[in-house]
Amino acid sequence: TQQLFPSRTSRPKPFRVTNANRSMKKGIMADGLRDLLNKAMDAFHVSCVSALVLDEDGTGVDTEEFFQTLKENTVFMVLEKGQKWTSHQNKDSQV
Amino acid sequence: TQQLFPSRTSRPKPFRVTNANRSMKKGIMADGLRDLLNKAMDAFHVSCVSALVLDEDGTGVDTEEFFQTLKENTVFMVLEKGQKWTSHQNKDSQV
Fold it and tell me: How many whole angstroms separate alpha carbon B19 and alpha carbon A85?
């Protein structure tokens, strides 16, 4: 018997998504970037997402390809229009 | 059976690219230096890249050979004409 290996969007993986000020964080299962985006919008009641970035360093995740390289439980930050990523502890750096 | 080993541009790897003032950073998949350059130009809407350098110390990455030695998720900075690499303001607050 032969088994097909799903090359792109495989089975859902767990991710964690926080809002811009890190006051809330939610666990979300997603099988792709678009899926995570939709579910994050639902979870945080955001109607217009400006970007989905990595919480650790603010890297914008715009492509499915890059998304698929991320590990389970990677922490994302969902940004609405006008919001910007800031680093964790000290927000001393100017913009 | 014989297997072909891809000598030059193997499968795409994830990288991270920031702009000159580090206000934006994006995750980009690329299988080579030229590929990364093209995608970085698209991602940042830059029409004329002056250089692609390492974010950590400003090392210019000009050759495919050197590029291929870099690890996944290496952070690059894309420089437009007239822009220069500068060191992080304070890089002590990382992970």
Answer: 15
